[in-house]
Amino acid sequence: MPYDLLLENCRAATMAGAVPYGAIEDAAIAINGGKIAWIGSRKDAGPAKELVDLKNCWVTPGLIDCHTHIVYGGDRANEFELRLKGATYEEIAKAGGGIVSTVKATRAAGEPELVESAKQRLQPLLAEGVTTVEIKSGYGLDLETEGRQLRAAQRLGEQLPLTVRKTCLAAHALPPEFTDRSDDYIALVCDRIIPVLHQQGLIDAVDVFCEKIAFSPEQTRRVFDTAKKLGIPVKLHAEQLSDLNGAALAAEYGALSAEHLEWANDAGISAMARAGTVAVLLPGAFYALRETKLPPIDGFRKAGVAMAIATDSNPGSSPALSLLLMLSMACTFFRFTPEEALRGVTVNAARALRLSASHGTIEAGKAADLAVFDIARPAELAYWIGGNPCRGVLQAGRWSRPLCV
Ligand code: DI6
Ligand code: FE
Which end of the chain is more exposed for a tag (fewer CB within 10 A), N or C? Predict the structure, then answer.
């Protein structure tokens, strides 16, 4: 039987196998029914109904942005401007700024408005070859609005050529109506928000912002115990601004990932290695917050912890709309190798979303999510600062961005 489609005359960064980038020179990729049917040397390819010449471009797995907060109301450009004029965080908070202002704007927005504004922000990511995105809630902080954010995320997956994973981050910040009653809010998250939204099929994973300015390790445990009882995988915002042993806590619960991790300690690193918890590093937030404390990349490397990178796209600490720029930042700030950076938005990002069986590499049986780049070597994906060498995107075997080579 001939294949539906054969992409030929390309070089593939399969991200599988032992050679750098899992590279195959002079490759061909066969696609059937939305999946990769075969990948190998062009000379070994079987017949196909349709042949497409990729003019020696590089093909990578569709890129995966495994940590975003991209569904929200309003933006905080005004606050950015005030901060640069010297306003302090406190003054901005007093003037109604910070996370709480995004919560207000998100509560005021209808679902169609949330979908539309996120769609605008997702366009540049799609154009760069992103085919999977994780979207967290966390700007609703009540049952109704957390649900609306996750439903908006679901709609985006239906309306865009994009696989969307929905993460409930109801424990992101304390809503103003719960001031000085954070345990009561955690009770609401555990007793109501998570169980109800889980029942509605809106939760693929549960996340918590474990931080001095957010929720304590004890409160994190309560949320994780709730998720565990319901059989929902967990992830954790850990050690972004201080060391609370969050990485070890995440590992103890078998978390898919621990994220940010600038302040992660050695015990946390070993625990993550043992548990197979992915380290998701977020150079956009590191940059925008002008952080100076580097995440312990070498420790993760030596311990064999898989590292992913993501935009953390959000209106406050990382208004990032380019995943390729994050590859550059991961290399320049965090000293990732370009290959580590590409693994961080493909194979390791898939793992952080529990999608390894179907996404993240170019291998037979996986989804035909592929990005075509006009570059001479894969390192260019991390090398250019800005610009977009993507020349075509296939999602589930269809051209979501028409090929232009
Ligand atoms: N860490 C962050 O950097 C953001 N959330 C989080 O858990 C901040 C989100 C915002 O400022 O809106
Ligand atoms: Fe985040």
Answer: N
